[in-house]
Amino acid sequence: MQKDFYINDQFLVKPGSNVVIDGKISRISRISPSTMQVLCALADHPGKNLSKEELIRIAWQGKENEEAFLQSMTELQKVLQDGKKEMLRIIPRKTYSLHATISNADIADLTRDASRAAPPSAKQASGQRWIFFLSVLIILLALIFVLFNYTWGRETAAS
Fold it and tell me: Regarding beta strands 27-30 and 50-51, do their DSSP bridges make them parallel or antiparallel, or are they unpaired?
């Protein structure tokens, strides 16, 4: 099993769980196991051209499955947001390459990214709403107290 790695310091790839996390927009994408194998093979050889046949051999154990291969390439373009095909370069039906910086992810990176990508739990959100409500209530009560003292002070001074 391959270790977790970064693509261009933006995408955290977790081969063990078939997940790609886009750190720029905090989006988590699940991809198929075969698509992950294709991505890992391309990442193992950044900038080098790999043939379609070689990638199929790696991801599908040599079973000719061109339709699934093309779906995997489309899935990778979508996950990597590579509509302009700058990272994932394709010479149709011939070679495929990943033009990106690949770096290993260490444990500190993984915990940082997990906490940044995780949305607040329902309990945390409820607690935050409760604190907001109490803050607004205290401000309103303070305003009422100030206005009451101001108008009451004017009435007693006038008498």
Answer: unpaired
CB of 5 closer than 8 Å to CB of 102: yes
- Please give, one letter per residue, the 3-state secondary structure of 75-107: HHHHHCCCCCCCCEEEECCCEEEECCCEEECCH
Residue 138 pLDDT level (bands cut at 50, 70, 90): very high
Kindly state the DSSP code that residue 2 receives in the 8-state scheme: P
Amino acid at 67: E
Q: What are the residue boundaries of the structural domains of the chain, listed by start?
A: 5-117, 120-159
Provide CATH code, domain 5-117. Answer: 1.10.10.10
One-letter amino acid of 17: S
d(CA 48, CA 104): 19
pLDDT, tens digit (0-9, with 9 covering 90-100), for 30-65: 999 998 898 888 888 888 998 888 888 888 886 777
Token representation of residue 31: 């991809």
- Calculate what percentage of the chain has a pLDDT beyond 70: 81
What φ, ψ does residue 114 adopt, rounded to 5°?
-65, -40
pLDDT score, position 82: 73
Helix residue ranges per DSSP H, the chain: 33-44, 52-60, 66-79, 107-117, 122-158
